[in-house]
Amino acid sequence: MGFFFIFKKSKVPMKKTFPIIFTLIALSILGILFIQVTWLQGLFLLSKNQLADKLNQSGVIVSNDIGKKMNTGLSFRFPKRGLGLNEEYHMHRFDETTISDVFNYGELNDKIKAALDKYGIKDVQFEFAVADKKGNIEIKSKKFEEAFTDEQNSLQCRVSVIPQDIMEPAGPFESLIIVVPNVTRYLAHELLWVIVGAVLFIIVVLAAFIITLRSLITQKKLNEIKKDFINNMTHELKTPLATISLAVAALKTAKVQSDAKSVDYFSNIIKEENVRMNKHVEAILNVGQLEKNEYEINKQPVDVHDLIAGVLDSFKLQLEGKPANIQTYFEAKTPIIQADEEHLLHVFSNLIDNAIKYSKDRIDITIHTHTLNNKMIISIEDQGIGMSADTSKHIFEKFYRAHSGNIHDVKGFGLGMSYVKWVVDMHKGKIHVDSEIGAGTKIEMTLPIA
User: Fold this and answer.
1) 176 FRET partner, CA 20 to 30 A, in 59, 94, 115, 300?
2) Contact, 159 vs 65, CB < 8 A?
3) What letter does residue 373 receive in the DSSP assignment?
4) Is 358:383 a contact under the CB 8 Å cutoff?
5) Distance CA 310, CA 317 (A)
C-alpha cells in the first residue's frame, strides 16, 4: 500500500512573526555585544598583566646592574648639615656604601629607561625612587609620591638591590621602586587600533540591526499595503461588473426594450461603468510604467486655465444633483506654460476628483492661479474632511490611502497622488499639502512657466 503526505504551507501572520524575529535578532545583537565587550575587557587585563611582568623584569635588570657596582665596604662621608651636636659641629662618619653614593638621579633614570626599552615599553611615563634599608627615600623623581599613592591607576614594581660581593644575602637591602602612572591611558593608547576596530565592528553590527529592523517594518507595511490594495482592487472591479451585469439583465427585459429612454439610460450606465473600469486598469498599468521610466515628458505650450476649465466640464455630469460650489480665480498673468498637456490633464483630474470624493455633504472647491517669479502657482482647496499630519506625510506614497474605518468608504487604489508627485517632479516643480481634519485640504503646485 502506498502512502503520500500533503504538506500545507504555513501561513503565520506578520503581526505574530515580527515580534519573534525582532526578539531573536535583539538577543543575538546583545550576545555579540556582550562577547565583544568581554573580549575587550579580557584583552585589556591581559595587556595590563603583560605590562606588569615586563615592568618587573626591567626592574630586575636595573637592580642587577646597580648591584654589580655596589659593595659592602664602608665609605667616608660628611654628615648633612644639622645632624651634629650643633650647626657648627661636624662629625665624620664611616657608613656602608649606598646607591646614592654611586649613582645620581640622571644615571638611574637612564638605566630604567634603557631596561624598559629592551622589553618594548617605549615612550612610557614612569616615576622612580630609591629607598634605604629602613624604607626611607634617598632619591626620587619629581612626581613619584603622587604616582605612588595612586595605586588604582598605576603599576608598581619594587625590587631589592643586592650588592654583588654578598655570598649569602640576608637583608635588609636597599630597594628600587618603579611606578608607571596613568596605566589605563597608556594601555588605551597602545591598544588604540584594536579598540577602534572593536568599536567599528559594534557600530557595523548595530547598523545591520537597525537596517534589518527597518526592512522588517517596511516589509510589514508593504504587506499591509498589498493586502489593502488587493481588497480595494477586488472591490473596485467587482462593483462596476455587478452594475453592468444588472444593466444587461434589465436591457433583456421586454419592458425596458419597449421604452427607448430606459434603453438609453441603462446603456449609459454600461458605458460609464466600462469607462470606470478602464480608468482603474490604466491606473494600475501606469504604476508599472512609472517604475520602469517608460513615460516621457513631451513639453509644449499649454494654457493651464483652459486645461482646468476642461477638467471641470468633465465632472459636470458627476456633480449634477449634488450641492456643489466650485469657484475659479484665474489670476495668472501668463496662463501658458511649457508642460506635457496629457500628464497635466491627469494631474488636475486627480486633484479635483480627490476634492470631490473627500468632500462633506456639500462640495466646496476653490481653484486659484497666480504667477510669481516666472512661476505659476496653482492651488486647489476644498472644505472636505481633511487629513491628519501623519496622513499628509505619506500621501504621495504609492498605494497609500487614509482610512476612516471602512476600507472601501472612498473609491481608488491610492495611486493618484504618487502619479501627481511624479508629474510635478518631472516638470521640475514643487507640490505642497496643507490639511486639517474637519477643515479641508489645500494642495498647492508650483510649476515653471518656461
Assistant:
1) 94
2) no
3) T
4) no
5) 13
Please answer whether residues 420 and 350 qualify as being in contact, where contact means their C-beta atoms are separated by less than 8 angstroms. Answer: yes
What single-letter amino acid sits at 334? Answer: T
Written as nine digits, the cell of 279 is 480608468
Q: Which grid cell is 45?
A: 587585563
pLDDT in tens, 173-221: 888 999 999 888 888 888 888 888 888 988 888 888 888 888 888 887 7
Q: What is the 3-state secondary structure (H, E, C) of 169-211?
A: CCCCCEEEEEEECCHHHHHHHHCHHHHHHHHHHHHHHHHHHHH
**Closest Cα partner for 318 from 264, 278, 355, 368?**
355
Residue 155, SS3 per DSSP? strand
User: Closest Cα partner for 388 from 430, 438, 443, 350?
Assistant: 438
Q: For 24-69, what is each residue's pLDDT tens digit?
A: 888 888 888 888 889 888 988 998 899 999 999 998 999 888 888 7
Q: How far apart are CA 115 and CA 118, in angstroms?
A: 5
Say which residue the cell 497622488 belongs to. 417
Q: Could you give the C-alpha distances from 188 to 56, 117, 179, 374, in angstroms and in order?
A: 21, 19, 18, 61
Distance CA(252)–CA(258), nearest Å, equals 10
Q: In this structure, how many other beta carbons lie within 10 angstroms of the beta carbon of residue 106?
A: 8
* DSSP string covering 258-293: T-HHHHHHHHHHHHHHHHHHHHHHHHHHHHHHHHTT
Identify which of 72, 135, 127, 81 has the alpha carbon closest to the alpha carbon of residue 101: 72
Dihedral (CA of 353, 357, 362, 364) sign: negative
Give dist(CA 261, CA 425) in Å, integer. 47
Say which amino acid occupies 238: K
Tell me the residue length of the chain. Answer: 450
